[in-house]
Amino acid sequence: VQLVESGGGLVQPGGSLRLSCAASGLTFSTYHMSWYRQTPGKEREWVAEIFSPGNRTDYTDSVKGRFTISRDNAKNTLDLQMNTLEPEDTAVYYCNAQHRTLNALDYWGQGTQVTVSS
């Protein structure tokens, strides 16, 4: 199983970025997908998730109304549209795949750096 994130970078406060996660080696539609983030010295923080089937979504309070998670089961991709970015959003963002019934099947990407700074 491989999860490969892309789309990170440097953006000014108020700007936007779109992260993508390309999944391979798994039956993507049978996995719940999430984004997490981590800053140095802090625990990894859950950001957003999208379930399958049904595409129900959920977000941590600090990103509600600004971030949108989406998935394309035909392309095996997960996206995170991030708008109105704040310096506090600076972190390494990770893609996570967890099987919807077999919780031990849990995979992580290598992460992509997002830096929000003027």
Description:
Strand 4 (31-38) and strand 5 (45-50) form a beta hairpin. The mean pLDDT is 97. The chain contains no helices and 11 strands. Strands 2, 4, 5, 6, 9, 10 and 11 form a 7-stranded mixed sheet that branches. Strands 1-3-8-7 form a 4-stranded antiparallel sheet, with no helix packed on it. It is mostly beta strands and 118 residues long. It has strands at residues 2-6, 9-11, 17-24, 31-38, 45-50, 57-59, 67-72, 77-82, 91-99, 106-108, 112-116. The protein is globular, with a radius of gyration of 14 Å.
Keywords:
globular, mainly beta, four-stranded antiparallel β-sheet
Per-chain topology:
Blueprint: E1 2-6, E2 9-11, E3 17-24, E4 31-38, E5 45-50, E6 57-59, E7 67-72, E8 77-82, E9 91-99, E10 106-108, E11 112-116
Parallel strand pairs: 2-11
Antiparallel strand pairs: 1-3, 3-8, 4-5, 4-9, 5-6, 7-8, 9-10, 9-11
In a few lines, what is going on in this structure?
This protein has no helices and eleven strands.
Biggest sheet layout: 7 strands, mixed
Unreliable parts:
none
Global morphology: globular
Beta-strand content bin = over 45%
Gyration radius, to the nearest Å? 14 Å
Structural class, from secondary structure content? mainly beta
Order of helices and strands: EEEEEEEEEEE
- Helical run tally: 0
Please report the total strand number as a whole number. Answer: 11
Q: Provide the residue-averaged pLDDT.
A: 97
Helix coverage percent of residues? under 10%
Straight-line N-to-C gap: 37 Å
